[in-house]
């Protein structure tokens, strides 16, 4: 659960036990754009060995930052696949196709930040519903502009 900042200069604090957990996709929702007055959106992922994180997509208006807390994350960046390990930091700029998953031989624990922020929690909740079989993937196609998440195909992925 995110706490709405009263003004742009207030800190945003989300206690670990207060973060909404979406176990179907391994996400912990930390701060949506409304909580940070548009500065960023942040969530943490914890993925099992080889588990999918996100299909190929791009953000037209935001950069996506990955900080690997533990394990290894494979990240598609353009047409290259980069394996990022514990302590590594990676920034994917706007309009760059990307995707991510846990390495086949490792779990992955990572902090993901999108800046400037986009209201993404409802997008992630919908992805969880899709994984549970409660909605189809097509349900996100009409929402690509709203979430600045535009699906792409990638021969490298």
Kindly describe this structure.
Strand 5 and strand 6 (80-85) form a beta hairpin. With 157 residues, the protein is mainly β. The chain has a single domain (22-151), classed as Jelly Rolls. It contains two helices and ten strands. The protein starts with 19 loop residues before the first strand and ends in a 6-residue tail after the last strand.
Full CATH superfamily name? Jelly Rolls
Name the assembly state.
single chain
Which bin fits the share of residues in helices?
A: under 10%
**Alpha-carbon distance between the termini?**
33 Å
Judging by the overall fold, what is the CATH architecture?
A: Sandwich
CATH topology: Jelly Rolls
Mind describing the biggest β-sheet?
10 strands, antiparallel
Number of domains: 1
Q: What is the average per-residue confidence, as pLDDT, rounded to a whole number? A: 94
Radius of gyration based on Cα positions = 15 Å
- Please report the total strand number as a whole number: 10
- Global morphology: globular
CATH class reads Mainly Beta
Secondary-structure content class: mainly beta
Please outline what is shown here.
With 157 residues, the chain is mainly beta. 10% of the residues lie in helices and 39% in strands.
Quickly list its features.
157 residues, mainly beta, Jelly Rolls, ten-stranded antiparallel β-sheet, RmlC_Cupin_sf, Cupin_2, Cupin domain-containing protein, RmlC-like_jellyroll
